[in-house]
Give the backbone structure.
Amino acid sequence: MYRALTWWLVTHGVDPGDRAAVAERAGVPHIKVGTDPDDPWVSVDGQDVSRDIRTHRISTTVSAVASVPAVRATLIAQQREIIDAASEGIVAEGRDIGTVVAPDAAVKVFLTARGTERAARHAADQGTSQTQTEADHARRDRLDAEQSAKAPDAIVVDSTDLTLDEVVELIVELARRIPERAC
């Protein structure tokens, strides 16, 4: 959602570094996210931006937008609405889901991987250099450190040496261990 708002700001000529302008427009675009894991999508004002929000420009700009308090308040409220509306539960990912957005979640996973592995994965996805991606990650991790704290009750999963399927399997197993009443 932060990427979607960043994309909207950039395409509408709003300087992501102008905190007042960003705050003023934080609630203007209509951002929607798909909740079906088999059909993930993100739209802004009815336009599918699922691929557009994964560009290098958005990746290197999103931290500035996400640090604006009005943006955080707007998007956290929307995220909570989505989570509350999911009667059968939902998997939500983000840097502050377990600490701020859904601190009472039944299952919290702090997913991590070695920096070189994260960069290799993202570089392959984006078609960028691993060296540049690693530098971008380090920069964004520094800028987003405040929102990136591990919830005290989160389970750490290091995905460095795991495939995507293995990560999913592990997290599903963690969720299955939670008593029915908690989910």
About this structure: The chain has two domains: 1-89, 91-183. DSSP finds eight helices and five strands in the chain. Residues 69-85 form the longest helix (17 residues).
